[in-house]
Write a structure and sequence with these properties.
2 copies of one chain form a homodimer. The first copy, chain A, is of the alpha/beta class. Helix content of chain A is 40%, strand content 17%. Chain A folds into 2 domains: 27-116, Leucine Dehydrogenase, chain A, domain 1 (Rossmann fold, 3-Layer(aba) Sandwich), CATH 3.40.50.10860; 140-273, NAD(P)-binding Rossmann-like Domain (Rossmann fold). The first copy, chain A, has helices spanning 7-25, 40-56, 71-83, 104-111, 123-130, 140-151, 171-178, 199-203, 255-258, 272-294; strands spanning 3-4, 30-36, 59-66, 89-92, 160-164, 188-192, 208-211, 229-232, 236-239, 247-250, 264-265. The first copy, chain A, has a 6-stranded parallel beta sheet with strand order 1-11-8-7-5-6. In chain A, strand 2 (30-36), helix 2 (40-56) and strand 3 form a beta-alpha-beta unit. The interface between A and B is large, with 43 and 43 residues. Strand 6 (188-192) of chain A pairs antiparallel with strand 6 (188-192) of chain B, so a sheet runs across the interface.
């Protein structure tokens, strides 16, 4: 019987811990969320962030730029927040509206002050992670996955971790983090993606399999080794006529058919998602203490 | 019969190409090499860089700080070169002298102006590589390995590449580069290191095996799949009483016993080493054209 890695429960526990810590240190962490466009999923993610922020006494400000925001409006919003000493953390919610110059999204992330980049997406933060420097913000989803596994006493050191998906916000930074010489990391990591051949042959060798590609039920039991740990980062909306909404959330893993094989598995929803939010607030708190120390 | 991947020959060809390009564009690329400490191997590496620079008409200046250089002297040297408009590329030769604050080496690399960081070691350059941004300098050894394979018509796309060694200057950036959506990259990459378990089981699945750990003849034939491509980044000095010098260079791969198995293999010396130097001059040229364009 697989252990269900309950991210929702752990995120709630971490909220209590963080709330106490914030009260004890007397800090007043403030997070600014810049949102452009009108992506439906983003609305849900942002709402969850605001709810969790309130729980832990992080002050969160949502800056809505509207669906027709220009590149310069986004740049100006970030620049203003960089200059605002009362703001400790800044995130720009993805996806941004598609604009002619596709590289502008990179520019937006890279212009966030590295000390306020609590999503850890900027080149400088991810680069520090690569170089093994600890004075960086870890991307929230990788950080959340590591925390979820560690708190459930799952050891990654020396294990073979296979990650499917090389996105800049999950798969890529996770592959770097888990193979670093950090506590409970030190894993042998294989990064798979859309061009990988013989995928099942590779995933079947994984002690831990982490899937982040956004394809509903992509991973079936034939891809999983007996006793493996499975982490499902997928959040796909699929049709479900039995529900009033007409849809339900579903992961990248075919949970019903896979969980029998696993020693541990994350559910969707309630697995990785809440952990991402929890780590964002952890980073924002860290940013606030850092600024306090520096001043 | 394995193809010998002749890096020395290719580096010489690339020198001709680069020399022509520099003459054609009328640029005057200048590289500054900062050297502290008195590492014997560094002396050889730096000499090779100076020789190649001369061949391709890159002007190279060696700044020797001596073995007792302080942290501040190193910082000051880099700062002066950052400010010098005639200098297009700056490298700080590793290893630096061990100083009490171990993180100072990171600071030295990170303080090099990103537009002059032709070794590509700074957090910002490696971070851009992670994020798939192309306006960065690729670390010279990874770039050299990719070029050596590509010029020998070895396809990496979709192949399983296993890298042994996670150093910040070879294994780590190489693992990121080869799994990016770049030309002849797109490989499935596994990064192994000192904590990896069942190493031979993993390396035997590799279509291409790249070794960068600095252990003489570490990889024997039992670790290599028939028909694999093997790239040896090791440069180890081992005793050899038959030579006047009393020593010889030897790679991380047991060449004599492994090469029969391979479809292609790099020799040591004459494989990856010369390619690293060639790519450094390529990057320096790029830096010089960039500065020209910007001004």
């Amino acid at each position: 019987m697989a252990t269900i890695l309950d991210g929702k429960k752990l995120a709630a526990e971490l909220a209590e811990e963080l709330k106490s810590k914030i009260a004890r240190t007397g800090s007043r962490p403030k997070l600014a969320i810049v949102m452009a466009g009108n992506d439906g999923a983003s609305e849900i993610y942002v709402r969850n962030k605001l709810i969790y922020a309130k729980q832990v006494d992080v002050s969160a400000e949502l800056i809505r730029l509207g669906r027709s925001a220009s590149q310069n409006e986004i740049f100006d919003a970030v620049a203003a927040l960089n200059a605002d000493d009362t703001v400790h953390g800044i995130i720009v919610q993805s996806p941004l509206p598609p604009l002619p110059d596709r590289s502008y999204q990179d520019h937006v992330f890279d212009m966030i002050n590295a000390d306020k980049d609590v999503d850890g997406f900027s080149a400088i933060n991810i680069g520090k992670l690569c170089n093994g420097q600890r004075d960086c913000f870890l991307s929230c989803t990788p950080y959340g996955i590591l925390t979820l596994l560690t708190r459930n006493n799952i050891t990654l050191t020396g294990q073979h971790v296979v990650i499917i998906g090389r996105s800049r916000i999950v798969g890529r930074p996770l592959s770097i983090l888990l193979s670093q010489k950090f506590e409970n990391c030190n894993a042998t990591v294989t990064l798979c993606h859309s061009e990988s051949k013989n995928l099942a042959d590779i995933t079947k060798t994984a002690d831990a399999l982490i899937v982040a590609i956004g394809k509903p039920k992509f991973v079936g039991k034939e891809m999983v080794k007996d006793g493996a740990v499975v982490v499902d980062v997928g959040m796909n909306s699929v049709r479900d006529s039995t529900r009033a909404s007409g849809s339900k959330l579903c992961g990248d893993v075919d949970f019903d058919n896979v969980h029998h094989r696993c020693s541990a598995i994350t559910p969707v929803p309630g697995g990785v998602g809440p952990m991402t939010v929890a780590m964002l607030m952890q980073n924002t708190f860290q940013a606030s203490t850092k600024l306090t120390v520096d001043k």
